């Protein structure tokens, strides 16, 4: 042999590696319980050292053997595409864009389960003793296209990747080696333990009615919208993408939930752990992050430059380059499309919040806040393009916090009115300001919208019903109101003043978090529907009482949007968690939502507010000129007093209300998997210990052991 013979391919037609036959190999595919029946009947292919291909099928126990092939190792693959019509596999394989190369092996692996709830693999598998070689493998090890599959889990018993690479470099194995397959060594029996292809999916109800499950889960997703997408490389990828940043949107969906890892981090500064309630689902039914594979999808090719598609472009919207700085993410599975819109972060966001001028809502009726409307127009086409590709009748669930809630409302109504689309939309917003006028609100009356407000959060009070003007005109008027807070509060609470156009109006059914001090000194909250805007406006007044002199408009809005009671992970998320736990315990004990003691504390706050309204009415009567016969201001105050009485009656009714399972879990109340999902959630001590209630921001020292004060004086 010549000295440079080693440079030639290990085998070829001219120089076979070894002309001898006589080797054999046997192998078996098993699940984590050591059972091979899950893979019985699967087709396989084997390439030997001469390049010859052998095909066959596993027997009913997942076993196969091969006799008398050319000497040396062989490469095993199970790459036959799924050919059935079962959903969601058929739809994923045949959809218009990003058709997935789902194999029969993948479908089988999705029907197996982990031996333990935390997905840990047992080193001493039941099939371990049966093998000369034992590997813990993944579907991606045995198929050619794997960009749509999860990253392999770490294990000390993974196949030897360097052996496959060495054989490919030597020309050993299938033609045009792609580093796919598993190397089996000759004259040995190999057992391949296939990792179940399961994922964790945050549970969301598809029912119209509010449930504690959605209240909590969507609060987490609204908080997640503040994170980056986390794709590396961020732009112009060439062969693959990763999502190493934790927390980030891409990391959560593509690298944690897809590999069955219970993620809890949704905010880089988060101190408390808030786990979503997850359900165990087949991998193909997870919330999807679309694959990146330039070989399989021409739209992923780097040579497209600005037109190249990759996950960050498909799932993540960031309009910072074009001035609105709107940010949102979108993902889906076979039942739900989830959209989450970010709240106020940057100075551009604050200035947009401050632009209260009204403009026509071109996709519907009425007028909308100009700043919010421009953000909606920026994101609209991005969402419609995604829906055009991946909407197959799922419920569209939209959530947003603060500014994101206002944009989410306009987006939801715009989508609802899309001609011939028939989108079925469910909207949850947290601490959202008013986004549009009374005509818009009336026109969107059929849109299902649950509007969540935290007590003392000032943001839902802006823009005020009377604000329809630019910053130049708004500031002098605001200074006038600040200089005389009592009339200013009266004008706002009674809704007596507006500057042109229809007044701003909230949309949706309001749910209010009312803080309560628990017997052990920790803090919880009662979620209820007050039906009285004065209670909501009290939060703005409490924030403004700390301001002193009137600041510049954008500074005022910045301070309001940075109030402690407005942040997600320190206010809305803990309050939503506390509500979920409270409702779970109430359901279990068959007790009332509000105890008698809690009602007494809250009733005192109501009485204080009623006295304020009556005092305002008396003050107004004394100031009215003798020849003024107008009853409009008094009528407005009387109406507000009546609404406050109704609010008290609503709260009182909670003492007798008994919850049903659907109040807590919505459409999942009937799920056969609910109990296993709850068992996983309660396995974390954070969800069992009362100390988690204390993560709700407590009232100040002089407010301990009572309900928060209600105050009608509010000026924004």
Please provide the count of β strands: 22
Count of all domains:
2
Overall pLDDT confidence = 79
- Silhouette: elongated
CATH top level of the largest domain is: Alpha Beta
**Annotated CATH homologous superfamily of the largest domain:** Alpha/Beta hydrolase fold, catalytic domain
Radius of gyration: 31 Å
Main beta sheet, described?
Answer: 8 strands, mixed
- Helix/strand-derived category reads alpha/beta
Q: Describe the strand arrangement of the main beta sheet, using strand numbers.
A: 11-12-13-16-17-19-21-22
Oligomer: single chain
What is the name of the CATH topology of the largest domain?
Rossmann fold
Distance between the termini: 91 Å
- Report strand %: 15-25%
Pfam families: Lipase_3
GO biological process, one term: lipid metabolic process
Domain Fungal lipase-type: 339-464
Protein name: Lipase family protein
């Amino acid at each position: 042999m010549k000295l440079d013979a080693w440079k030639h391919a290990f085998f070829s037609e001219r120089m076979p590696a070894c002309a001898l036959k006589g080797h054999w190999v046997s192998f078996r595919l098993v699940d984590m319980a050591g059972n091979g029946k899950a893979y019985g009947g699967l087709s396989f292919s084997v390439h030997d050292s001469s390049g010859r291909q052998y095909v066959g099928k596993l027997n009913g126990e997942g076993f196969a053997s091969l006799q008398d092939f050319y000497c040396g190792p062989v490469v095993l693959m199970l790459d036959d595409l799924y050919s059935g019509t079962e959903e969601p596999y058929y739809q994923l394989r045949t959809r218009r864009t990003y058709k997935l190369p789902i194999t029969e092996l993948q479908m089988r692996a999705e029907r197996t389960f982990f031996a333990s709830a935390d997905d840990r693999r047992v080193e001493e598998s039941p099939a371990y003793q049966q093998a000369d070689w034992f590997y813990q493998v993944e579907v991606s090890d045995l198929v050619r296209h794997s960009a749509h599959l999860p990253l392999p889990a770490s294990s000390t018993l993974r196949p030897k990747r360097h052996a496959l690479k060495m054989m490919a470099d030597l020309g050993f194995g299938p033609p045009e080696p792609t580093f796919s397959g598993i190397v089996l060594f000759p004259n040995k029996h190999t057992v391949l333990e296939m990792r179940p292809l399961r994922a964790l999916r945050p549970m969301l109800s598809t029912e119209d009615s509010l449930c504690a499950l959605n209240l909590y889960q969507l609060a987490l997703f609204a908080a997640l919208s503040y994170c980056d997408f986390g794709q590396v490389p961020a732009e112009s990828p060439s062969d693959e993408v990763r999502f190493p940043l934790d927390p980030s949107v891409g990391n959560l969906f593509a690298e944690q939930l897809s590999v069955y890892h219970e993620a809890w981090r949704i905010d880089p500064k988060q101190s408390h752990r808030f786990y979503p309630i997850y359900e165990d689902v087949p991998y193909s039914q997870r919330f999807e992050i679309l694959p990146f594979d330039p070989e399989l999808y021409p739209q992923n090719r780097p040579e497209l430059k600005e037109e190249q598609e990759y996950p960050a472009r498909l799932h993540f919207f960031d309009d910072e380059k074009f001035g609105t700085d709107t940010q949102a993410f979108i993902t889906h599975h076979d039942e739900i499309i989830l959209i989450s819109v970010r709240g106020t972060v940057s100075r551009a966001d604050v200035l947009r919040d401050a632009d209260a001028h009204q403009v026509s809502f071109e996709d519907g009726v009425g007028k909308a806040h100009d700043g919010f409307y421009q953000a909606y127009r920026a994101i609209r086409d991005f969402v419609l393009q995604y829906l055009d590709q991946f909407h197959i009748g799922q419920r569209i669930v939209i959530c947003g916090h603060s500014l994101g809630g206002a944009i989410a409302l306009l987006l939801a109504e715009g989508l609802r009115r899309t001609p011939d689309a028939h989108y079925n939309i469910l909207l949850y917003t947290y601490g959202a300001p008013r986004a549009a006028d009374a005509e818009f609100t009336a026109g969107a009356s059929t849109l299902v919208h649950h509007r969540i407000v935290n007590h003392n959060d000032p943001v839902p009070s802006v823009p005020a019903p009377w604000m329809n003007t630019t910053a130049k005109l708004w500031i002098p008027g605001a200074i006038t109101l600040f200089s005389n807070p009592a009339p200013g509060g009266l004008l706002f609470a009674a809704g007596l003043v507006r500057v042109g156009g229809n007044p701003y109006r909230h949309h949706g059914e309001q749910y209010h978090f009312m803080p309560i001090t628990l017997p052990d000194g920790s803090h919880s909250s009662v979620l209820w529907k007050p039906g009285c805007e004065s209670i909501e406006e009290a939060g703005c007044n409490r924030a403004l009482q700390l301001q002193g002199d009137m600041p510049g408009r954008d500074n005022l809005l910045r301070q309001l949007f940075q109030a402690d009671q407005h942040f997600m992970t320190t206010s809305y998320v803990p309050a939503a968690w506390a509500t979920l736990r409270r409702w779970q315990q109430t359901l279990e004990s068959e007790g009332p939502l509000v105890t008698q003691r809690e009602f007494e504390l809250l009733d005192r706050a109501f009485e204080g507010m009623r006295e304020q309204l009556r005092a305002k009415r008396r003050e107004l009567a004394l100031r009215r000129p003798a020849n003024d016969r107008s009853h409009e201001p008094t009528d407005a105050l009387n109406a507000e007093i009546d609404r406050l009485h109704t609010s008290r009656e609503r709260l009182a009714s909670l003492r007798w209300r008994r919850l049903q399972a659907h109040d807590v879990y919505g459409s999942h109340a009937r799920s056969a998997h609910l109990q296993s999902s709850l068992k996983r959630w309660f396995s974390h001590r954070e969800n069992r210990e009362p100390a988690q209630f204390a993560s709700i921001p407590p009232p100040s020292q002089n407010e301990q052991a009572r309900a928060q004060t209600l105050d009608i004086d509010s000026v924004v």
